[in-house]
C-alpha cells in the first residue's frame, strides 16, 4: 500500500487505523452538536416523529395519516421505523446520517482502490 504523499508504503494495519480516525472525525459534527446544520433535517425529524408516534396518539391521527409512496427519503423513513422501539427519532436520524457518511467514505476508498489497485489515504 503506497502513500504518494510520503513516497512510502502504508501497511494494511496503518491504513485501517488512519481510516478509522478519519471516519471518526467526519462523525464528530453529527454526534457532538445538538442541532445538525442541514437545511431540511428538522423536517425529516418531524416526519420521523409522526411516523413513530402516529398509532399511539389520537390527536396526531386527527391531522395526519401515513400514505406510503416512493419518495426520496423513504430509506430514512424505513430505517427510523425499524429502530423506533429501540432508539428515539433523533438518535435514529443520527445513526442514519452516520451510515450515509460511512457509505460515502468507504465508497471513495473503494473507488480509489479499484482505479489504482492499492490502498491509500
Describe the model.
The protein is mainly alpha-helical and 121 residues long. The chain has one domain (2-116). It has helices at 12-32, 41-53, 58-63, 74-83, 89-116, and strands at 2-3, 8-9. Strand 1 (2-3) and strand 2 (8-9) form a beta hairpin. Helix 1 runs antiparallel to helix 5 (89-116) and helix 2 (41-53) packs across helix 4. The chain is elongated.
Q: Could you spell the SSE succession in H and E letters?
A: EEHHHHH
**Count of distinct structural domains:** 1
What is the mean pLDDT? 88
Structural class: mainly alpha
In angstroms, what separates the terminal alpha carbons?
10 Å
Brief sketch in words of this structure:
The chain is mainly alpha-helical. It is 64% helix and 3% strand.
Question: What structural keywords apply?
Answer:
mainly alpha; two-stranded antiparallel sheet; 2 strands; 64% helix; elongated
SSE blueprint and pairings:
Elements: E1 2-3, E2 8-9, H1 12-32, H2 41-53, H3 58-63, H4 74-83, H5 89-116
Antiparallel strand pairs: 1-2
Helix pairs in contact: 1-5, 2-4, 4-5
Amino acid at each position: 500500500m503506497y502513500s504518494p504523499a510520503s513516497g512510502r508504503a502504508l501497511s494494511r494495519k496503518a491504513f485501517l487505523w488512519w481510516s478509522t480516525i478519519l471516519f471518526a472525525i467526519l462523525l464528530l459534527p453529527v454526534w457532538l452538536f445538538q442541532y445538525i446544520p442541514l437545511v431540511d433535517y428538522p423536517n425529516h425529524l418531524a416526519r420521523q416523529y409522526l411516523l413513530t408516534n402516529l398509532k399511539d396518539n389520537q390527536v396526531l391521527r386527527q391531522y395526519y395519516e401515513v400514505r406510503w409512496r416512493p419518495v426520496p427519503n423513504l430509506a430514512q423513513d424505513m430505517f427510523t421505523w425499524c429502530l423506533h422501539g429501540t432508539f428515539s427519532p433523533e438518535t435514529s436520524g443520527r445513526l442514519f446520517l452516520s451510515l450515509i457518511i460511512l457509505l460515502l467514505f468507504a465508497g471513495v476508498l473503494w473507488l480509489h482502490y479499484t482505479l489504482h489497485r492499492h490502498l491509500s489515504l
